[in-house]
Amino acid sequence: MGALSHIRVLDLTRVLAGPWCTQMLADLGADVIKVERPGSGDDTRQWGPPFICPDGSGSEESPYFLATNRGKRSITLNLSDPRGQRVINELVPHCDVLVENFKVGALARYGLDYETLKQLNPKLVYCSITGFGQDGPYAERAGYDFMMQGMGGLMSVTGEAQDVAGANPQKVGVAIADIVTGLYCASAIQAALIYRNQTGQGQYIDMALLDCQVAILANQAMTYLAAGETPVRMGNAHPNIVPYQVFETKDSHIILAVGNDGQFRRFCELAGQPQLAEDPRFSANRDRVQNRRELVPVLSSLMKTRDTGEWLALLESEGIPCGRINRIDETLNDPQVLHRQMRVSAQHNSLGAMDLLGSPLKLSATPGEVRRAPPVLGEDTDTVLRDVLGYPEKTISALHDDGVV
């Protein structure tokens, strides 16, 4: 039994931010009913190649969709058809949470907005996800992760330093604005459910990708707000800690993450250069930050004298934070990752047994877990209509025949 096994979620989202939120709720045990367009489904079902096609089958599955929809049930429903809208109206009293990421005002045209649906279920927690929120000068604009990384300041501090030849702003290698929005949404929904337990009242949650991207600017934002300094791109270097970056070794690269002065002294001793820690330019982190242009070239030469494996053994023996830069295949076969069950197996209805990412939520009594593989498009339509709404087979068949489901 998951912590949210008593919760049912009606998932009207697609692509990433919304599905990431509802996937997290599913990991925690919620019954997530994902509503998709008949015939095509979530946009990400077509995002590829690559596609995975089981032997002897004409169907194919997108790794992108598989990455964001584990643990859910899938039903197909035409929301532009009044009969499809009626199905949503009938499902709402059976659900605790509704999550959607349509454009501002789009669902109101179908009578599926919060003000309408809360009349059917006053306890409903309704979460809307948009690029810019429900109000403000940009509210009507469409918003995508790449845009948010740019507009939200992240790309201005990501990528090689501006004085490096050919350097340009860079986005993060995963859609981080979408993902953190999904995580914030899951947190907000659970807070709203706690409030509902106390008061019996549902509520509306207005989440914006831009808001969430700005929220994770963290120390970079406070550098501007508190000190009036605008952060810039620094490549793999850290604006407030030195040395805290990637160094080239004899055979590859390594991350050296010295977090305090004691670690720096131990590093200098291991490297055979104890005098560096006594140098007033480098003895304290404040000084190392101010004099990084003098220190980093010295450290770069030192790091090239051993290969990565040698450095890891030495540094780890003294508790100095360091790490390899793994490819994704190396990460997913790392013994720590496997031990923590971050790579798990599940049975997919068309692909058979397959590996998926696990849940990082390691609660002692109600841990997050992968309870089922991502669904085939519409595989649960009949089950939900029959078991949740009590539709007879004749009615379900008619909805199929008319293209409503």
Features:
2 domains; three-stranded antiparallel beta sheet; 11 strands; Rossmann fold; single chain; 36% helix; alpha/beta; 17 helices; 405 residues; formyl-coa transferase, domain 3
- Shape-level CATH architecture of the largest domain: 3-Layer(aba) Sandwich
Give, in spatial order, the strands making up the sheet with the most strands.
3-2-1-4-5-6
Mean pLDDT: 95
Instruction: Domain count, please report it.
Output: 2
Number of strands: 11
The CATH H-level superfamily of the largest domain is Crotonobetainyl-coa:carnitine coa-transferase, domain 1
| Helix amount | 25-40%
Question: In CATH's first tier, which class of the largest domain applies?
Answer: Alpha Beta
Number of helices: 17
Radius of gyration: 25 Å
Order of helices and strands: EHEHEHEHEHHEHHEEHHHHHEHHEEHH
CATH level 3 topology of the largest domain: Rossmann fold
Beta content: 5-15%
**What gap, in angstroms, lies between the N and C termini?**
31 Å
Assign the structural class, choosing from mainly alpha, mainly beta, alpha/beta, alpha+beta, or little secondary structure: alpha/beta
The biggest sheet, with number of strands, parallel, antiparallel or mixed sense and barrel status, is:
6 strands, parallel
Shape: elongated
Stretches with pLDDT under 50, minimum 5 residues: none
